Amino acid sequence: MTSKKQLKARVRARMAKTGESYTTARLHVAGNAGAASDGGWRFTGGRHPSTAAITSVLVNQGAAVSEPLVFLAGGGIGAGYILWEFQHDQSRHVVLGFRNQWQYHDRWMAKTLTRLGVPYEEHRTSGLRAASDRLAAELDAGRPCVILPDRYHTGYWQVPALLDGHGGHPVVAYRRDEDDVYLDDRGQAPIRLPRERIDAARARVGSYKNVTHVLGEAKLTEAALAEAAQEGLRDCVAHLSAASDSFSLPAWRKWARLLVDTRNAKAWPKVFADQRSLADALLSIWEGAEPVGIDGGNLRDLFADALDEAAVLLDRPSLAESAGRFREIQALWHELAESALPSEVPEFARIRELTAAIKESVMADGTAGGPQAAQAAEELWVARAAANDSLATLADTGPLFAGLSSRLSAIYEAERTAVAQLA
Question: Residue 359: which domain range?
Answer without folding.
Answer: 1-34+222-423
